[in-house]
Amino acid sequence: MISRASSSECFVYITLPGQVSPVTAGRYELTKNARSDALGRFVYGRSYLENPDAVEIDPVELKLSTRTYETAQLRGVFGGLRDAGPDYWGRRVIEKHAGQTQLGELDYLLESPDDRAGALGFGLNNAPPAPQRKFNKTIDLEKLQTLAAALVEDEIPNDPEAQQVQDLLLLGTSMGGARPKTVVQDSEGLWLAKFNRADDRWNNTRVEHAMLRLARECGLTTAESRIETVAGKDVLLVKRFDREKTAKGYTRARMVSGLTILRADEAPEARQNWSYVILVEELRRIVEDAKRDARELFRRVCFNALISNLDDHPRNHAIIAKEKNWRLSPAYDLTPSVPVSVERRDLALDCGDQGRYANAKNILSQHARFLLDKGEGEKIINDMKAQVEATWYETLRASGVSEKDGDTIRGAFVYPGFSL
Ligand SMILES: Nc1ncnc2c1ncn2[C@@H]1O[C@H](COP(=O)(O)OP(=O)(O)OP(=O)(O)O)[C@@H](O)[C@H]1O
Ligand SMILES: [Mg+2]
Fold it and tell me: So what's the pLDDT on residue 134?
């Protein structure tokens, strides 16, 4: 069979700091040669570069410049653009809506609605569309929850005309992650709503809510959250830290994932770059306050190890910029797990001389990279361990986690291998 080279392109829009409507930042083109190798090109628009308020899309690959950026990595999608696209969950929603599963990378960017994380948007017109002003309300959660459950169960047809499929668009498809979710608004602002799944082993939403609280008790900066119960089911609402409600509309913060900072992706061969030690080195060069954010990241590594959050992959870390400068985002998606081993558990990223081992000595081994001396590192670890030990159960229960669920996940907290 003869394959043809193909190309497609779109405009990239950005909502500048303090603004509520987007401007056109540049143009992105994705081409495939006859061997189907993808090549992505991005160029900032001339008028954008002349705009004194212009900001970079991402500080890693796409700094403000007149050059044409090219990438053959990540199927030709720059990390900073990929971060604005949907992930496993959103892709499923879009595939249902399109009635097919073999969509191109650009389709996912173009088909997803305007509720995506960060400040970017995508479209085929030179001029950006008006910002979306209407979002689902928290009172729609019951319907959204039912739809999400049907999608999980695969009870929704691949039929673009079907009413259910139309309704699916109501779901917050552009946000990343694998769990069922949507975006809703209330008088305070925008929230990421995360649903339980019928096959969950415990009440995930309440447990995640409790973990955000426990993290704050341990001195971490986290996203704000609350629980809404609709039709007898709990929904976790996580306040979006990349949106701020103002009288004129929503302002947006730029957002770039840890995956992009590490120049990595989710493919197994790219995982050799998955490292907190590399992440903190990169972070120190990018953020406004290196000391503050390096220490905060150290605390997060320590916290993840103490609650066996082994799903701490690089997309569960991000940097944001509300104005010109970048900083580590608040912590989110903190979920405990209970693997069988009580001696050795591994984080998703390397965290010390002994690789991914979720262990105090291992985490401490690279303290200097986190701009901590050994004594400071030890103190953080010991204090946090004592705090988690003393309050994990109480915090779970105070967040409405049942006694039964508390017992099921008991083994996640301060597992014996942490102190070996
Ligand atoms: N409070 C927030 N404000 C803005 N963006 C957020 C917030 N929480 C999460 N996000 C973004 O949404 C994405 C999905 O959220 P989250 O990680 O909580 O979902 P998930 O489905 O549990 O993910 P995973 O696939 O890691 O299990 C994140 O990767 C991040 O980009
Ligand atoms: Mg996640």
Answer: 74
Instruction: Give 321's DSSP letter.
Output: E
* Highest mean predicted confidence (pLDDT) among 7-11, 32-36, 61-65: 61-65
Q: What value does the CA radius of gyration of the chain take, rounded to a whole number of Å?
A: 22
Identify the residue whose C-alpha is closest to ligand 1 atom 1: 240
Read off the pLDDT of each residue in 205-221 and give the average, rounded to a whole number.
Answer: 98
Residue 55 Cα, ligand 2 centroid: separation in angstroms? 26
200 pocket-lining for ligand 1 (C-beta < 6 Å): no
On the question of pLDDT at 49 being above 80, the answer is: yes
Protein residue closest via CA to atom 28 of ligand 1: 176
- Which residue has a Cα nearest atom 19 of ligand 1? 177
Name the one residue in this structure whose structure tokens are 């002003």: 133
Cα gap 115→134, rounded to integer Å: 10
Residue 109 CA to residue 105 CA, distance in Å, equals 7
Q: Within 13 Å, how many C-alpha atoms sit on residue 60's CB side?
A: 24
- Render 325-336 in DSSP notation, one character per residue: S-EEPPB-----
Instruction: Report CA(116)–ligand 1 centroid distance (Å).
Output: 11
Determine if ligand 1 sits within 6 Å of the CB of residue 175. Answer: yes
CA distance 73 to 38: 8
Cα 335 to Cα 27, 75, 84, 148, 332, distances in angstroms: 38, 30, 23, 20, 9
Burial of 41 (0-12, 13-18, 19+ CB in 10 A): middle
CA 105 – CA 82 distance, rounded (Å): 9
Ligand 1 pocket residue status of 242, Cβ below 6 Å: yes
127 C-alpha vs ligand 2 centroid, how far in Å?
Answer: 32
Kindly state if the Cβ of 315 falls inside 6 Å of ligand 1.
yes
Alpha-carbon distance of 7 to 38, in angstroms, equals 9
- Give 294-326 pLDDT, tens digit per residue: 999 999 999 999 999 999 999 999 999 999 999
pTM, two decimals, is 0.94
Sequence-distant (6+) residues with CB within 8 A of 336 are 207, 211, 307, 308, 309, 409, 412, 413
Residue 2 has pLDDT above 50, yes or no: no
The sign of the dihedral angle between the CA atoms of 362, 365, 369, 370 is positive
